[in-house]
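Thread: "does anyone have the structure for this chain?"

Original post by V.I.:
We have the sequence but no experimental structure in hand. Need at least a predicted one for the grant figures.
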Amino acid sequence: MIYLKTDEEIELMREANQLVGKTLGEVAKHIVPGVSTLQLDKIAEEFIRDNGAVPAFLGYGGFPNSICASVNDQVVHGIPSSKMILKEGDVISVDCGTILNGFVGDSAYTFCVGEVVPEVKKLLKATKDSLYLGIQCAVEGHRLGDISNAIQTYCESQGHSVVRELVGHGIGRKMHEEPEVPNYGRRGCGPLLRNGMCICIEPMINMGSKNVAFEKDGWTVRTKDRKPSAHFEHCIAIRPDGPQILSSFKFLEEVLGENAI
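Reply from O.Q.:
Generated one for you, tokens below.
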């Protein structure tokens, strides 16, 4: 069942998602060569708790940390580790969630570590651009497939591939609610978009093949060909006057400046 949110609930969701954005901004300050993904995790958890919230990912389905930190060919759900040390030229997707006032916030951004080769930067830009193209289609009265098709069409036109096994999702009092939000599909298909629907749109796009492998840790998803992947995510609400982005990249972009994607 798809739960439609009231105006008051959407404002509470905005608060939870803005805190995610601020957390990503705090983490962005520390994404440099030589830092471990576990250090980033600890920074995120401390910041979330200091702001009166709880890390939504910690313990979710048994996940052991507060952020997903996915490096290079890791698509999503990378487990932070003291052994995973970032180096110049890496990219890292940081996916973060909070629980605040009974609602969940969720957002992700793929960061460059120092200077990244142009082909990888192109992948990141295309993935981020596709997120906003999808959001533009999140209009009351349209269909979910309109969002999916916009993302797929654009990314494939840029020479990239769309992961099929992982999708976006509805969100509210729970991290994952109906409906699922694929990054591929046909226009005019899927559930009707209605006022009060809140969804996470999160393109997961590969430089090479769309095929992925699931690691033995039960969480980490990699590209089968070991080529880089990118992941960007916003939480949005469907409103009569158009889609409202509840999460934010503003805080991390203030940190990154001209180095933002």
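V.I.: this helps a lot. The mean pLDDT is 98.
O.Q.: and The first strand starts at residue 54 and ends at 55.
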